[in-house]
Design a protein that fits this description.
signal, 2 domains, single chain, alpha/beta, 11 strands, two-stranded antiparallel sheet, Rossmann fold, nine-stranded mixed sheet
Length: 386
Amino acid sequence: MGRTPSLWLVALLVLGVLGVLGLWLSTGICAGEALPSSLSDTSSRLGQVGPARGTGSGGCESSVLERTGLVVGRFPRKYCFMAPRVQVAASDCCRPGNAGNVSCFNEFWTYARCCVPDEEERAVSCARALQDRLAACMASDGSLGGCRSQGDGAVCRCPAVMFDDRAKHHKVNELSNDFNRALWCVARGLLDSSSRERLVVDFFMAKGHSSHVLAHGLTASVARRWRLGGFEMDAGLSQAAAESLGRFGGASVVKSCERWPQSGVVVVNGKAPTRHTEADCLRRLCGNGADLVVLDPDFQILMQEEFFLLEDLCRPAMYAVNNINLAAHGGWIKEYLVTVGWLELAAGSSPDFNSFLNAAQGKGNALALSLRSWSLLLRPEHACRL
């Protein structure tokens, strides 16, 4: 009988532990905290970890650009006519009509880069105005179509963001994914207003999450006509992307480019091309050039051949590149473009709260994956056309 109080204490302790465990389960895992990984579309709740943001419409957070300084790239002309590459004087090479002189120029060291005077001051002035428009759009209540909270303590729902029931909060919100906000705002109001038809290429389309944001922004823009296209190898994902994007005026999946569809959205079910000989679909898609190309690659896709093919066939006014801070991704593209004279219009990052799960799947180091950075780059000669 002397042990009875001790047994009562043990029983009470066990009940207390079970109660705390049940409360944790009901507010944690059962509430959707264990989220699936996402590489093609990073989306998390930045308001829980990042700097304070203003309150937007419907109790949702607003967004601000993390970096507002314009990065102005300058091509290193001092190397253009340096021996031993060139044995001809700069004054002789830079004579009018001499662009085809192979003794002076090649595909990289071009007449335009080495001899044509920059209009840097004017381009920078126009780019700063574009940056102001972008920042205002990203911070506005209407960004992503106007996000609304679904109740007290609930995450926000944004019309531009594609709903994915399996991903729950991770895909429903995407409010913290400033890359998506930037894409929406560019599609909504920063593309060339003088062009008859706007063209956006979401090169690695996957299931179409980024494309959904882009199509929503294009639909909300003043453009009378627009087209959106990209590549996806998996037939199931291609069809899923077309189904979700069909709400914006029709979407088609094609495997062959002989008969090109008239729909506004085209999903090419096939490998993204790396050579001219396999680029018929990209050639048909780009036509007279692209306004924006989005590059959001998976792990270990360096995009060297793909990028230069895009430059040849699409020559976009802007590139939006995601995951630029991660190893075995496309960060080199941003550095290359700035080196050859492009302008970095905006940059930011989004947290990946599934970094440890992604690391466990062999996609890198969890600490390195915890933040994913992006960059929006502008071709300088287009700065004053937008």
